[in-house]
Amino acid sequence: MTEIWQLFGGLFIALIFASSVGYILKRRSGVDTPNSVIDNLNARINAWWVMIGIIFIASLLGFYGVIGLFLIISFMGLRVSFSIEYSSRRSSCASRLFLCDLAIAIFFSRH
Question: pTM of the entire structure?
């Protein structure tokens, strides 16, 4: 269990460092001056904070928390995939999506 705390500790230190660099770059370029590169960097760093936070909460919930997180991620990825692939055939897409969601739920419930 200590390895997971070391992993998240290292990730939090790296994110604190990255956030500090982004803050310093933003202050140097001017707070009111728009800079698309620095704003993009800070947006990506903030997204990493959210992702690591969600994974951290799931790992605090234990094995089933992580399985639940991957169930949600798999479901969302499958929905996006089907919405892109079968955008012209909505009726058949709904039934296929339901069957795939059912397959994902069965797969994750067995492990």
Answer: 0.71
Q: Binning pLDDT at 50, 70 and 90, where does residue 60 land? A: very high
Residue 98 has pLDDT above 80, yes or no: no
First to last CA, the chain: 21
- Mean pLDDT across 62-74: 86
Residue that has been written with the tokens 């397959």 in this structure = 103
30: left (phi over 0), alpha (psi -120 to 50) or beta: left
Report the 10 Å Cβ neighbour count for 87: 9
Query: What are the helix and strand counts (H, E) for the chain?
Result: 4, 0
Cβ atoms 35, 29 nearer than 8 A: yes
